[in-house]
Amino acid sequence: MNTVRAICTGERLSNAAEEAALEVLTRFYEEAGCRVTLERHPGFVSTPEGASFVVEGIKYAAVTHPMTPSVEGLHAPLVYVPIEMVATVEAAQVTGRLVLTDYLAMEPVVRGLEAKGALGVVFITGEYIHNMIVSRVWGSPTPETLNNYVGIPVASISLGDGNTLKDRLAKCEASLDAMLATTVYGRWVEIPCLVAEIPTPHKDFVMVTYHLDSWHLGAMDNASGNACAVELARILAPYASKLKRGVRFVTWSGHSHGRYAGSTAYCDAHFEELHEHCVLNVNADCLGGCCASVMTESPAMASTAELAKCALREAAGVTDWIGCRYSRSCDQSFWGPGVPSIFSQVSEQAPFEGVAAEAFKKMFGSSSSGGFGYWWHSIQDTPDKLDPVLLARDVRVFAVTLCHALMDERLPVDAKAEVDELTAFMKERQAKAGDALDLSVVIDRLEWLSRVLVDRLDDEPEVANRLTHEVLREIIPLSYVEGSVYSHDEALRAPPVPMLRDIDHLDAMDEHHRQATLVKLRRQVNRLKMGVRHALQAAGADVPV
Ligand SMILES: [Zn+2]
Fold first, then answer.
1. Distance 377 CA to ligand 1 centre (A)
2. How many domains, in total, are found in the chain?
3. How much is the average pLDDT of 107-117?
4. From 385's CA, which of 174, 209, 226, 530 has a CA 20 to 30 Å away?
5. Domain residues for 430?
6. Which of 160, 183, 206 is the last residue of a domain?
7. What does the angle CA 204 – CA 205 – CA 206 come to, to the nearest 5 degrees?
8. How far apart are CA 68 and CA 185, in angstroms?
9. Is-contact 286 224, C-beta < 8 A?
10. Could you tell me if residue 500 is inside a domain?
């Protein structure tokens, strides 16, 4: 809690408060015995600098969102479109209008309304207004993605004001006169990545990662993750000589206002090293929230699920962990180099009722948890929203994870589980594609790889650990990455094996489009074949052509 309070001196968005927090972290890590380096990488960030929203002369408190355009004063009729109607609303109903809709500000909603001619979108969020970033561009843009941002202004208001406006709209004939002004400041900055290492002779390392930047004070999101990492450094440093592999704590900015620009830049700057030597990414975000009693939903990969289960059981007595597959969020910028990941959050709120709960469900996509609390991404995310006992509990989960990951002779990451999961996905894809696409070679090779691993993972720990790493860096990109492993897929929901997602749409295509899509899919099958081939070769199997 002292670390949380030391970091929470202000909103940390590429500014003085962020630099002050970096100095605090540097001091704490050095006091713990770590070697600290501060890297800075160019990145594009965007901050909301103010919004004004006036309806029929009445002003409502509003915030705007990063990566959306500024507008000086947009006057237009305001209409309400319930969120569940956004996909089907007639263009004529929103063209030339400002659209009021429900829940947290989400890019696909804005894009859908923009395509139908809306001039701007205002979201009704929670009891307190929630900040969100409205962008699908993962990390800083490239020439290919420079124009992939939404083109209309976006703002959010509170649930109370939203309900008032909905009532007013329901009582009038069709629309109300509204004015929206937003100021969004996008610029290239040098994004800090603070790297702290416990000195060890090992080349292979586990990475503990988390974001420093915040909305408002960001005590839970994410001073809690910072405090967790510092505490882990303090706990582990005295055992440096007992560690079987290195550990690197990496702090970055650019998560909240750069759509993961910091983690992406760190990946880009260290790609080869991550590919060769990073054996696990442990991400810490939003820990220790008051009443955060749900501990069954944290994200993990097939290869890290057992480790997650074990750490939650040993540290917090959780026996019914289910987990979830990573969505395209949580600073998961390391799938390209094939780094296995575990966690981000480990505890969430129990489900709650009401409109705000619906908004959170949309965001978090789970019915068994209520997300991160009403304070998340709002002015209410202050240190009193953390429960010191629960924060300690969550840090213990990470501590147990790290102890196993660093001190077990055998790296507690299961390459065979990742291979078997991919095999199951491929069989499902084959069933869906039918005769249109032949995945049999890929499936056969994966099954062969699984059998080979049963024997080979019993080898000497050093050999088995190397094999685990070499197999996973081939398999993880096949399971998680759609485009090139050197670029970064969009920040949108993606199915497993996203490179084969077009299979789902083949039936609805006309013949010309279908044939063209099959050309693309056959090339993707080559990617899959080659990836599994390399994994088999790493396992010493001689793969015939
Ligand atoms: Zn966060």
1. 9
2. 2
3. 98
4. 209
5. 415-538
6. 183
7. 145
8. 9
9. yes
10. yes
Could you report the per-residue pLDDT of 119-174, keeping only the tens digit for each? 999 999 988 999 999 999 999 999 999 999 999 999 999 999 999 999 999 998 77
**How far apart are the CA of 219 and the centre of ligand 1, in A?**
10
| pLDDT class of 209 with cuts at 50, 70, 90 | very high
Q: Considering the domain boundaries, does residue 476 fall inside one?
A: yes
Instruction: Give residue for tokens 């399971």.
Output: 479
CA of 50 to the centre of ligand 1 (A): 22
- C-alpha–C-alpha distance, residues 531 and 534, integer Å: 5
Is 126 inside any structural domain? yes
**DSSP sequence for 163-209:** HHHHHHHHHSSS-EEEEEEEEEEEEEEEEEEEEEE---S-SSEEEEE
**How close is the Cα of 221 to the center of ligand 1, in Å?**
5
Rounded to an integer, the average pLDDT of 50-73 is: 97
Cα(214) to ligand 1 centroid in Å equals: 7
Token pair for residue 108? 């696909």
Cα separation, 359 vs 349, whole angstroms: 14
CATH code of 167's domain: 3.50.30.30
**Above pLDDT 90, what percent of the chain?**
93
Rounded Cα distance, 347 and 376, in Å: 13
- State in Å: Cα 229 to ligand 1 middle: 14
- Give the H/E segment covering residue 92: helix 91-94
The model's confidence at residue 365, banded by pLDDT at 50, 70 and 90, is: low
Q: How far is the CA of 236 from the centre of ligand 1 (A)?
A: 24
Q: Where are the alpha helices (DSSP H) in 296-433?
A: 305-316, 355-364, 388-407, 415-433
Residue 172 CA neighbour count, 13 Å, CB half? 15
Task: Give the distance (Å) from ligand 1 centre to CA of residue 271.
Answer: 23
Judge whether 301 lies within some domain.
no
CA 222 – ligand 1 centroid, Å: 5
CA of 385 to the centre of ligand 1 (A): 15
Where among 134, 168, 183 does a domain terminate? 183
pLDDT digits (tens, 9 = 90+) for 225-258: 999 999 999 999 999 999 999 999 999 999 999 9
Ligand 1 center from residue 539 Cα (angstroms): 38
In order of 76, 391, 477, 500, 538, the CA distances from 481 in angstroms are 41, 33, 5, 10, 21
- CA 422–ligand 1 middle distance (angstroms): 29
pLDDT of residue 366: 55
302's CB contacts (< 8 A; 6+ apart) are 414, 417, 418, 420, 421
